[in-house]
Design a protein that fits this description.
Belongs to the INSIG family. With 289 residues, the protein is mainly α. It is 79% helix and 1% strand.
Length: 289
């Protein structure tokens, strides 16, 4: 009996393990589910963020690539446009230059032909230059070839003067006005008139006087080295051509003292070259501007 009581008391005194409560079990399950759900949400958010980052990167890179592509294409496009504009401007400048050249040539030709008629008529009236009788009976008392030849020579000389100035890099700006050009023409006509009107003891004195007047014309209205050089060259070439024409009997001079011509004729050619050169320079400034 006593043993049974002791065994019962021991059973009651043995600590029993507490039973897990349903609430704690449910709480732990819910916490675990929430943790898993949160981890899944975090992974999904990370994936979305990565995708958004990739989309943004692609959207940013594509305009940049487009810009880069445009930048890569822009030099060729700009070079093409610049070459087209430069070719168009060069074509227009060439057309303008040719148009100005034709205008200046026509004006110089007309001036040279008119001056040749007037000055040659003066020489013929003073019996300095002799043409055949059938030539004297014409309207202008001159051969038909004199005006076109003198006009062509005036056009060449008038275009040559500003061209030489530009190549030498010495633009002629001394007395660049039409009043000075007209005074130069008047002095040239006076020198030509003096060669036919003035009477000296011999042709040498007349030649020296006309040479001094011609140099004075160059000093007064030109004063350029190119003008002096071209005037001397024109006088030399024109004198040779005149000698050739007179030698072949095309016309002749009375009292020749320099082979077949007068000794003062190179002075006339020199002053005429300076005068036509001044006209050409003034036309180049006016028409080109």
């Amino acid at each position: 009996m006593l043993g049974a009581l002791l065994s019962v008391w021991v059973c009651f005194r043995t600590p029993e393990k507490p039973m897990p409560r349903l609430e704690s079990r449910a709480w732990s399950c819910s916490c675990t589910a929430r943790g898993r759900h949160r981890s899944q949400l975090g992974d999904t958010a990370a994936e979305l963020a990565a995708k958004v980052g990739e989309m943004l990167g692609s959207s940013v890179s594509s305009p940049s690539l487009a810009l880069v592509g445009r930048g890569a294409r822009s030099p060729s496009t700009s070079s093409t446009s610049s070459s087209a504009s430069s070719s168009a401007s060069s074509t227009s400048s060439t057309l303008n230059w040719s148009q100005h050249l034709v205008q200046r040539s026509v004006v110089l030709f007309v001036v040279g032909a008119f001056m040749a008629l007037v000055l040659n008529l003066l020489q013929i009236q003073r019996n300095v230059t002799l043409f055949p009788d059938e030539v004297i009976s014409t309207l202008f008392s001159s051969a038909w070839w004199v005006p076109p030849c003198c006009g062509t020579a005036a056009a060449v000389v008038g275009l040559l003067y500003p061209c030489i100035d530009s190549h030498l890099g010495e633009p002629h700006k001394f007395k660049r006005e039409w009043a000075s050009v007209m005074r130069c023409i008047a002095v040239f006509v006076g020198i030509n008139h003096a060669s036919a009107k003035l009477d000296f003891a011999n042709n040498v004195q007349l030649s020296l006087t006309l040479a001094a007047l011609s140099l004075g014309l160059w000093w007064t209205f030109d004063r350029s080295r190119s003008g002096l050089g071209l005037g001397i060259t024109i006088a030399f070439v024109a004198t040779l051509i005149t000698q050739f024409l007179v030698y072949n009997g095309v016309y002749q001079y009375t009292s020749p003292d320099f082979l077949y011509i007068r000794s003062w004729l190179p002075c006339i050619f020199f002053s005429g070259g300076v005068t036509v050169g001044n006209i050409g320079r003034q036309l180049a400034m006016v028409i080109t501007a």
